[in-house]
Amino acid sequence: MNVLYNEYLAILSFFAIAFLISILILILSYILNPQQGDQEKVSAYECGFNPFDDARATFDVRFYLVAILFLIFDLEISFLFPWSLVLGKLSTFGFWSMIIFLIILTLGFIYEWKKGALEWE
């Protein structure tokens, strides 16, 4: 039982040292760095020139739609990597369940294509 606590003690001491170092760096940054902000520090900066418009302007909903569709299909495709690694060891149930998953994924892609979610104009 004592050996188990010794292993946890090493992990706990690592977290404590990391916490203390991060607090020390945070305190030193406030002590050593002057906190006065001038006009150039608080102004907006975009790629070396003044910004064109307000940063809080509304975006078209198509940006969000494309981002959500990308996330959905990207996460679903990530299920294929572990499946492809163990494909030779899978039973027929594992194979056909992934084929059904891919069919549903393809049908969803066709549906959003027909609905025009991928059209930009």
Query: Radius of gyration, Cα only, in angstroms?
Result: 26 Å
N-to-C CA distance: 67 Å
Residue runs with pLDDT of under 50 for 5 or more positions = none
Q: What structural category arises from helix and sheet content? A: mainly alpha
The number of domains is 2
Please count the beta strands (DSSP E, at least 2 residues each).
Answer: 0
Give the oligomer, counting copies of the same chain as homo and different chains as hetero: single chain
Description:
Core subunit of the mitochondrial membrane respiratory chain NADH dehydrogenase (Complex I) which catalyzes electron transfer from NADH through the respiratory chain, using ubiquinone as an electron acceptor. Essential for the catalytic activity of complex I. InterPro entries: NAD(P)H_OxRDtase_bac/plastid, NADH_UbQ/plastoQ_OxRdtase_su3, NDAH_ubi_oxred_su3_sf. It comes from Porphyra umbilicalis (Purple laver). GO terms for molecular function: NADH dehydrogenase (ubiquinone) activity; oxidoreductase activity, acting on NAD(P)H. It is a multi-pass membrane protein. The structure is a single chain. The protein has five helices and no strands. It is 68% helix and 0% strand. The chain folds into two domains: 2-42; 61-115. It starts with a helix and ends in a 6-residue tail after the last helix. The protein has helices at residues 2-32, 39-42, 61-77, 80-85, 92-115. The longest helix is centred in the N-terminal third of the chain and has 31 residues, at 2-32. With 121 residues, the protein is mainly α.
